[in-house]
């Protein structure tokens, strides 16, 4: 089954004076993601480093998997939460957010379309 859920792990630029620690945490996190993949706790992951562009986002990792596995990871896995805490100490603008991917995008767009329809003004009685 193809992944339909993801965790977007975004990060900004390294905090001044924390450059060496940031490299160490980055390597630790990448090794952790690889172990998760080997244990089938995630389907895959991809890390992207952005070129300097004047914005707050320096890069991100997209973890792919089922919603239940990724929610367990995000909310119940002590190692994940410890790495999130470490990362937030060495980079700016760190955050983790759920993401719709694959077939879930169609579902999300259907929900959005329904919401649009529910707030459309009624044309009854309008001339």
Give the tags.
single chain; 127 residues; alpha+beta; four-stranded antiparallel beta sheet; 4 helices; 4 strands; 47% helix; globular
Note down, in words, how this protein is organized:
The chain starts with a strand and ends in an 8-residue tail after the last helix. Strands 2-3-1-4 form a 4-stranded antiparallel sheet. It is built from 4 helices and 4 strands, in the order βαββααβα. It has 127 residues and is an alpha+beta fold. The longest helix has 20 residues, at 19-38. The chain is globular. Helix 1 runs antiparallel to helix 3. The protein has a single domain (5-119), classed as Alpha-Beta Plaits (2-Layer Sandwich), CATH 3.30.70. The mean pLDDT is 92. It has helices spanning 19-38, 67-76, 78-90, 103-119, and strands at residues 5-11, 44-49, 59-65, 95-100.
Concise summary:
With 127 residues, the protein is α+β, with helices and mostly antiparallel strands.
Question: What's the topology here?
Answer:
Layout: E1 5-11, H1 19-38, E2 44-49, E3 59-65, H2 67-76, H3 78-90, E4 95-100, H4 103-119
Antiparallel strand pairs: 1-3, 1-4, 2-3
CATH class: Alpha Beta
In what range is the share of β-strand residues? 15-25%
The major beta sheet can be summarized as: 4 strands, antiparallel
Helix-strand pattern, N to C? Answer: EHEEHHEH
- Tell me the number of structural domains: 1
Neighbour order of strands in the largest sheet: 2-3-1-4
CATH topology: Alpha-Beta Plaits
Q: What is the number of beta strands?
A: 4
**CATH architecture descriptor:** 2-Layer Sandwich
User: Percent range for helical residues?
Assistant: 40-55%
Structural class: alpha+beta
Q: What overall form do the CA principal axes indicate?
A: globular
Low-confidence stretches: none
N-to-C CA distance? 51 Å
Count of helices? 4
Could you tell me the radius of gyration in angstroms?
A: 19 Å
Q: Could you report the average pLDDT, rounded to the nearest whole number? A: 92
